[in-house]
């Protein structure tokens, strides 16, 4: 049978089973596998077991790798979720593809402003709303659905597949880097390509392939002022307040133009070369739609090239929150005794995590010295992940481009991504092979945000691209 004929059968099979795929995603979304919530760790374990059972039902050999314990801020220890290592096929004559994905999700609660229950997949106008629908349960399940479709069509699978599915990605992939290093000469030896579907198109219509990611350095600034919370009427104006110190420090980190104010932070950022500047001009990107997706009236930069550069090739600093601060409704006249400020810096070529860590420590120390405060202040790099860049002309990218053309009838843009998948570089280093980012979700999916969703059309077309990608990559 020609590949065109098989593709027709594959696409029909996938289309005919749309309902089953939505039900499967709904079952996965119903498990609130939030890695950042320690009390939800059993749910993360349940998600691992759910996926293991699904994989085993497809004849994938599954091994669970223990990656140790997580030490929480209060000193308690919590078991890290096992990493799923799956092996599908072991034919020496076939190429071997490693598929990485994650089963944990960002926190979500209706009170954050969701229109529906975040852990109940809700279909409205062709969109599937639910936490993890696009990040990253939808894409992970898509890969597995495609394997099932090949089986049901009695079609030999074109490649061997090795799965690495973790459940701490949204919390810095703790334990995974060491695991991959230990697997270099065993599970990861002899692989040919690595592919990751855990990112989004640049727009809503046009597919893309990505060859770059920013890294991340996530910091905690801990300020402690007293042994207990205090009445602001009795003590206000007489003691050095922890929150006042913390806000003073946090307000010195970034200016209103998004420029990071930490001395030396831009020193290692790669210079923009004329050839690179040209790349941004060729990319399809709708600035108005971007603002609309963010729900803002005005972005810092106005032109397309500048926005893309500030997403992909310049660092950014975001203030995320303050643990221990009063954030309830109403008024509470308290002086919090202990607050932890959280911020992250997205890092780009050629910034080094160790340099960033030193510069941030120095900056906080300088600001605090000027304040003459007796409070205990410490800075901690909670987790760090490197930036990553690959060669978009590599044959694996050519294979994925062909697959995209078959399904979408259009060449994908070759783009980068402003977010981070910290383990991508480790895969590249430990396998020595090309890594491809193959996004299937749309730019407005709202990962990490309220009302995260995955379009049914992206789910269906994403599986089709994955199905054809396996054939194309088998040939290169
Ligand atoms: N889909 C990728 C993603 O969302 N990655 C996270 C990774 C991360 C790192 N620290 C906390 N989360 C991201 O925020 O980019
Ligand atoms: Zn993700
Ligand atoms: Zn995410």
Automatic annotation (TrEMBL):
Pfam families, A to Z: M20_dimer, Peptidase_M20
InterPro entries recorded: ArgE/DapE_CS, CNDP/DUG1, Cyt/Met_Dipeptidase, Peptidase_M20, Peptidase_M20_dimer
Ranges where the Peptidase M20 dimerisation domain occurs: 211-370
Annotated Mn(2+) 2 binding sites: 102, 135, 198
Residues annotated as site: Important for catalytic activity: 231
Coiled coil: none
Annotated Gene Ontology cellular component terms: cytosol
Protein name: Peptidase M20 dimerisation domain-containing protein
């Amino acid at each position: 049978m020609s590949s065109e004929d098989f593709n027709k059968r594959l696409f029909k099979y996938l289309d005919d089973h749309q309902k089953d795929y939505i039900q499967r995603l709904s079952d996965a979304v119903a498990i609130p596998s939030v890695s950042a919530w320690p009390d939800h760790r059993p749910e993360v374990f349940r998600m691992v077991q759910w996926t293991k059972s699904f994989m085993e039902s497809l004849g994938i050999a599954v091994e669970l790798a223990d990656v140790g314990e997580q030490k929480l801020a209060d000193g308690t220890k919590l078991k890290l979720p096992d990493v799923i290592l799956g092996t599908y096929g072991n034919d020496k004559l076939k190429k071997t593809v490693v598929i990485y994905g994650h089963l944990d999700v960002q926190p979500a609660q209706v009170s954050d402003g969701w229109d529906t229950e975040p852990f109940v997949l809700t279909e409205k106008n062709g969109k599937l709303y639910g936490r993890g629908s696009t990040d990253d349960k939808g894409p992970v399940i898509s890969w597995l659905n495609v394997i099932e479709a090949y089986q049901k069509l009695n079609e030999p699978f074109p490649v061997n597949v090795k799965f690495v599915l973790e459940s701490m990605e949204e919390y810095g992939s703790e334990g995974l880097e060491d695991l991959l290093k230990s697997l270099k000469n065993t599970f990861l030896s002899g692989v040919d390509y690595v592919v990751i579907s855990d990112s989004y198109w640049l727009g809503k219509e046009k597919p893309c392939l990505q060859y770059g990611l920013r890294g991340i350095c996530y910091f905690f600034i801990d300020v402690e002022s007293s042994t207990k919370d205090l009445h602001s009427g009795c003590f206000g104006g007489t003691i050095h307040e922890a929150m006042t110190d913390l806000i003073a420090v946090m307000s010195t980190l970034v200016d209103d133009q998004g420029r990071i104010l930490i001395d030396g932070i831009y020193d290692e950022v790669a210079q923009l070369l004329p050839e690179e500047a040209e790349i941004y001009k060729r990319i399809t990107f709708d600035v108005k739609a971007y603002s609309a997706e963010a729900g803002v009236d005005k972005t810092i930069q106005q032109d397309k090239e500048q926005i893309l550069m500030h997403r992909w090739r310049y660092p950014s600093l975001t203030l995320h929150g303050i643990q221990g601060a009063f954030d309830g409704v109403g008024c509470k006249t308290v002086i919090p005794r202990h607050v932890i400020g959280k911020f992250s810096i997205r890092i780009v070529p050629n910034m080094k995590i160790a340099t960033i860590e030193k510069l941030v420590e120095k900056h906080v120390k300088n600001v605090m010295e000027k304040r003459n405060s007796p409070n205990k202040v410490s800075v901690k790099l909670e987790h760090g992940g490197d930036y990553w860049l690959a060669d978009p002309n590599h044959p694996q990218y050519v294979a994925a481009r062909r697959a995209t053309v078959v399904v979408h009838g259009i060449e994908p843009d070759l783009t980068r991504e402003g977010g981070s998948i910290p383990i991508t570089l480790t895969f590249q280093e430990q396998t020595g092979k090309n890594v491809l980012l193959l996004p299937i979700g749309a730019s407005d999916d709202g990962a990490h945000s309220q009302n995260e969703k995955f379009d049914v059309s992206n789910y269906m077309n994403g599986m089709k691209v994955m199905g054809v990608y396996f054939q194309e990559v088998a040939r290169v």
